[in-house]
Amino acid sequence: MRSPSSFFGVLFILALISGVHAGYDFFYFVLQWPGSYCDTSSGCCYPTYGKPPSNFGIHGLWPNYNNGSYPANCDPNNPFDVNKIQDLVSSLRTNWPSLACPSSDSTSFWQHEWDKHGTCSESVMDEHGYFQDALNLKSRINLLQYLQSAGISPNNAFYSLTNIKSAIKTGTGHTPWIECNKDASGNYQLYQVYICIDHAGTTLIDCPVFPTGACGSSIKFPTF
Ligand SMILES: *[C@@H]1O[C@H](CO)[C@@H](O)[C@H](O)[C@H]1NC(C)=O
């Protein structure tokens, strides 16, 4: 007679063979335009080590499910430890700066991102691998160059959302999601760009699902 445990054992092996992996399906790699963070009514604070470059910065690398929801805070037993990423700190300060107030050295931003999002990818990458992966993606994806090649520059002018998306698609090969926020006068502007990355964190893919949110058809690209 077949026992229940062997029945579940077979199911488990079938799940492994069919490629089911625990945790998440793909990543959103989210880049942020600092000018749009700073010109809102609440403003921003530069890091203690100085004004970040006039370029997109990393917000995070976020595991997501194909159904649109996402896992969070997956492993409280593996909290952020800055000692594990000492060799990356100087690059993180430039490429992953915090603009939150009060001014900080950005460490608490990286800590939040690892604890909330990074721990959900630890079956694939450890803490050092997670931050290294995000930096590698950032150096491969030059959003500002893609936009400027299409005549779209951070000069406080308004640009068509369709043209912004198609300029980024020309650069990356895939349609991005654009998240808008509002400046102090209430104008929609280019705030964050979502690029979809496969489960391994290496290959750009078409987004299985897009986030939602309001944005104008013509949006501001503020200076920084
Ligand atoms: C989305 O998919 C995940 C993983 O399969 C599941 O745990 C979660 O409950 C689903 N959420 C919704 C809203 O369907």
What do you see in this structure?
- This protein has helices at 4-17, 34-38, 89-95, 107-116, 127-140, 143-149, 161-172; strands spanning 26-32, 57-64, 157-160, 177-182, 188-197, 218-221.
- It has 224 residues and is α+β, with helices and mostly antiparallel strands.
- A hairpin with a 5-residue loop joins strand 4 (177-182) and strand 5 (188-197).
- The termini are far apart.
- Mean pLDDT is 92; it is low at 1-21.
- 2-acetamido-2-deoxy-beta-D-glucopyranose binds at residues 65, 67, 69.
- Residues 1-22 form the signal peptide.
Largest sheet: 4 strands, antiparallel
Quick one: CATH superfamily? Ribonuclease T2-like
Shape: globular
The total beta strand count reads 6
CATH topology title: Ribonuclease Rh, Chain A
Task: Please trace the helix and strand order, writing H or E for each element.
Answer: HEHEHHHHEHEEE
Helicity range of the residues? 25-40%
Number of helices: 7
End-to-end distance, in Å? 71 Å
Q: Uncertain segments of ≥5 residues (pLDDT<50)?
A: 1-21
* Widest β-sheet, arrangement of strands: 2-1-5-4
CATH class categorisation: Alpha Beta
CATH architecture annotation name: Alpha-Beta Complex
Number of domains: 1
Radius of gyration: 19 Å
GO molecular function: hydrolase activity; ribonuclease T2 activity; RNA binding
Active site: 59, 113, 117
Signal peptide: 1-22
Family: Belongs to the RNase T2 family.
